[in-house]
Amino acid sequence: MNQYIAHFCQAATLSVVLALSAPGAARADGNVAPVPESGIIKVKSVYSKAETIARLKQDIAAKGIRFFDEIDQSKLAADAGIQIRPSTLLVFGNPPLCTLFIRSNALAGLDWPVRLLVFEDEQGQVWTAYTDFAYIARRHDVRGMDQDAFNKATGVIASITSSVRSR
User: Fold this and answer.
1) In CA terms, which of 31, 39, 61, 156 is 20 to 30 Å from 24?
2) What is the pLDDT of residue 167?
């Protein structure tokens, strides 16, 4: 009987831990939105692809975040003789923060600096997409980071993408 009680307590504890650590993305309004199992956060833009990119880059610069590159994936595909829908990758980040992830686990370098995809779907709707920071931290078992800094980074990416979403 004690064994069953112990297993029940373990299962209950695991359920609570999983519920408390469920993925969520901070939104610019301070609320937490559920994060899909993939860890990918998509935000619908109300602007054209070019205007979306311009606004995102302007917001990144206004926040003092280092911008590394803009990669036009659809142009790369066209240069290779392949046609894809419009897709551009923006690469940016805050090295003092990003490197905390990498210091905890070198494999986190696969996800840093931050990458924000701007793309058009089959209907021509423009979207932004990025990988949730909490998902990245779990993926690479990142430990020992200052939770306030982590939450701030999550809020910043939500704020950046909110600059192009409908109000």
Assistant:
1) 61
2) 67
Give the residue carrying structure tokens 């897709």: 87
Is residue 100's pLDDT more than 90? Answer: no
The topology (CATH level 3) of 2-162 is: TATA-Binding Protein (3.30.310)
User: What is the reported pLDDT for 36?
Assistant: 74
Q: Which of 132, 130, 129, 142 is nearest to 102 (CA)?
A: 142
Give pTM, 2 decimals.
0.76
Q: Which helix (H) or strand (E) holds 2?
A: helix 2-20
Q: DSSP characters for 63-123?
A: TTPEEEEEEEHHHHHHHTT-----EEEEEEE-HHHHHHHHHH-GGGGGS-SEEEEEEE-TT
CB atoms under 10 Å from CB of 16, counted, come to 10
Distance in angstroms (rounded) separating the CA atoms of residues 11 and 73 = 46
User: Minimum mean pLDDT among 1-10, 72-81, 92-101: which range?
Assistant: 1-10
